UniProtKB/TrEMBL annotation, chains A, B:
Keywords: Oxidoreductase. GO terms for biological process: isocitrate metabolic process; tricarboxylic acid cycle. It comes from the Archaea. This is Isocitrate dehydrogenase. InterPro entries: IsoPropMal-DH-like_dom. PANTHER family: DECARBOXYLATING DEHYDROGENASES-ISOCITRATE, ISOPROPYLMALATE, TARTRATE (PTHR11835), ISOCITRATE DEHYDROGENASE [NAD] SUBUNIT ALPHA, MITOCHONDRIAL (PTHR11835:SF34). It comes from Natrarchaeobaculum aegyptiacum.
Amino acid sequence: MTHEIVVIPGDGIGQEVTPAAVDVLEALDLEFEFVEADAGDAVAEETGEPLPQETYDLAAGADATLFGAVGETAADVILPLREAVESFVNIRPAKAYPGVDALRPETDLVFLRENTEGVYSGHEDRLSQDVSTLTRVVTESASRDLAEFACDYVAGDGHDGFTIAHKANVMRETDGLFRDTVAEVAEENGVETDEVLMDAFATHVCLDPTQFDVVVCPNLAGDVLSDLAAGLVGGLGLLPSANVGPERALFEPVHGSAPDIAGEGVANPAATIISAAMMLEHLGYDDEADAVHEAVETTLEEGPHTPDLGGDASTADVTEVVIDRL
Amino acid sequence: MTHEIVVIPGDGIGQEVTPAAVDVLEALDLEFEFVEADAGDAVAEETGEPLPQETYDLAAGADATLFGAVGETAADVILPLREAVESFVNIRPAKAYPGVDALRPETDLVFLRENTEGVYSGHEDRLSQDVSTLTRVVTESASRDLAEFACDYVAGDGHDGFTIAHKANVMRETDGLFRDTVAEVAEENGVETDEVLMDAFATHVCLDPTQFDVVVCPNLAGDVLSDLAAGLVGGLGLLPSANVGPERALFEPVHGSAPDIAGEGVANPAATIISAAMMLEHLGYDDEADAVHEAVETTLEEGPHTPDLGGDASTADVTEVVIDRL
Ligand SMILES: CC(C)[C@H](C(=O)O)[C@@H](O)C(=O)O
Ligand SMILES: CC(C)[C@H](C(=O)O)[C@@H](O)C(=O)O
């Protein structure tokens, strides 16, 4: 069965790391049909529109989308694209790799971030000169979808359960509904959970990240706490992510378009290649996914390394070695 | 001039560290009149009310309030008390001390957290079985008050300016108003600012905390990011804070009531004593404030240490030595 994969390189180093990940996928000789699409600052400058309707429609119709990075217009591109693939969960592994400097080398976490609502549902008003408001939305149904996904996730991957991170001591109704629904679904499924306030999580994950494993949280909490975990493993450079919906999904490195090094051909392709491995897993190619994960891990451990990791290899050098190691 | 100081020990170790800080204040022989008041889980169990009206009124009328810690009912106590003193800013220094293990010993940050609104203004609704909402409020006036305070703060303390941390790429109207107002006030006052997204801050502060100095942020961002900084300096145990209003203020350690060690007389009083030093500064006793800061810092560096810092001294031992060093 042929899979249609939409590829959206975007801006800056997105134009370098995305083709690198496609090269790795092509080396696997699977039946993928790649369709390239535009989005980001460059398109916005030409057309006034950072996310062309055509790109949106392609993502909304494809089996999977591989996304690179976008500059200033990131929110205008990535939020609608998450919607296009009807993604209800953003999977964000944050794992330290041997061979890469990390503040907490023992970090090995996975965030399952609610991906449709919270402050991102985005209803804002300017009520008067002085007063602005934002309506934060939390629904039982979205919390339930996330929780069911989380239960499958921890069952499939041999985890002990998951931690619910929230701020229900202040957001009693909304985060209270989130916490209670997620805990209830877990109980129905025989999955163990514990809970932690998101502020306490921020302290404790620094003191000892091994206290946590899979962390389920509302949208903004997931955004901030997973970026915090990125700081513990040595930066955003290595973090992959998956935006998963019922039928489609979009895969993207957590890093941005890095305009400071764009065009030099030295961007680290690891996060995008690992995102591509998550895509392989999602499409059912488990062996191929494992092979890519292993090839990247070996390369992180043994080199060659791009300059961000202290080496002097190019994006192409690293990609070639990863492909050789498949 | 006699100052009336309301003292609210609260629950757990609050009952141990608050009297310790009062002992230090009394040793200074200033004209303070201490009035003790109740709040917390224990009172709630007796009376059904975690924050007695009398306590609220005392805090609302006193020059300053020294607060210990409260257990499960923390939000029901501390949020109204911040309101009682009309606090518009929560000052949260996060500094690593020589002699104390820290993940990032070079950390020396001060968070100026908006203290009245954001998600804390707390209007929540359950619109239907499925849907709950919270109205997040950001006003120009509260943003302006915070910004004016921040400008004075950085001028008085010889900082270069401050960083505005926000999430205006998603919360465009509300955090946009916050960011724009704060930046505008800073410009009017000739204070330099830069800005950073709160998620990016979470990564970057781990990678290099010396990039930042004074960080001005909305309420929940300040809650989470300052707790993150606590993780970098070795935990909440040493962090003081001040809730400052136009006429009154409330000082509290950032840590909680620590039921696991309560009653043993070994709680670390440092955070509460440093909070008392912030109170002295606030009341205009700059020399005494410096003396207390120095006495605590020397004690953190040279001991004696309570068990949380690897020692076997009691709360009383540490307090006595701090007093001797004044
Ligand atoms: C670009 C921005 C809207 C986005 C988010 O807040 O989700 C980004 O920070 C991320 O985490 O992918
Ligand atoms: C107890 C809670 C309501 C409070 C807050 O969220 O402000 C606490 O976390 C703090 O930071 O003082």
